[in-house]
Design goal:
Length: 112
């Protein structure tokens, strides 16, 4: 099953309490090598975002994120895991799970 793993910053986090987080390059290499990580990359900051909405047939653009959020998206990965427990185990080893927030969302399956 495929999962979208959103990697988010937590601006309110006290970085002194993060501890000894794993190395991101090691996490990427391990999960690429096992065929778990299908795709992933960093994304530019929220100041570079453009929000697109269509209202009454008119395309409306807003610079920056439209939704107020505490956690800021820093990157993403697409994971191929056996189930949610497997995805949680993979995500829990990502460095940002230690100093940020990881959100997992399953993709719709063919049977959904």
């Amino acid at each position: 099953m495929k999962y979208l793993m959103l990697v988010c910053l937590d601006p309110g986090l006290d970085k002194s309490k993060v501890g000894d987080a794993p190395d991101v390059e090691e996490w990427v290499a391990e999960n690429d090598g096992k065929g778990i990580r299908v795709l992933g990359d960093r994304v530019r900051p929220e100041s570079d975002a453009t929000t697109v909405r269509v209202r009454d047939g008119e395309v409306l653009l807003t610079d920056g994120p439209y939704v107020e959020t505490k956690d800021l998206i820093a990157g993403f990965d697409v994971l191929e895991c056996t189930d949610l427990d497997h995805a949680v185990e993979v995500a829990s080893r990502h460095p940002m799970a230690w100093g940020g927030v990881i959100e997992l969302r399953p993709f719709w399956g063919e049977d959904d």
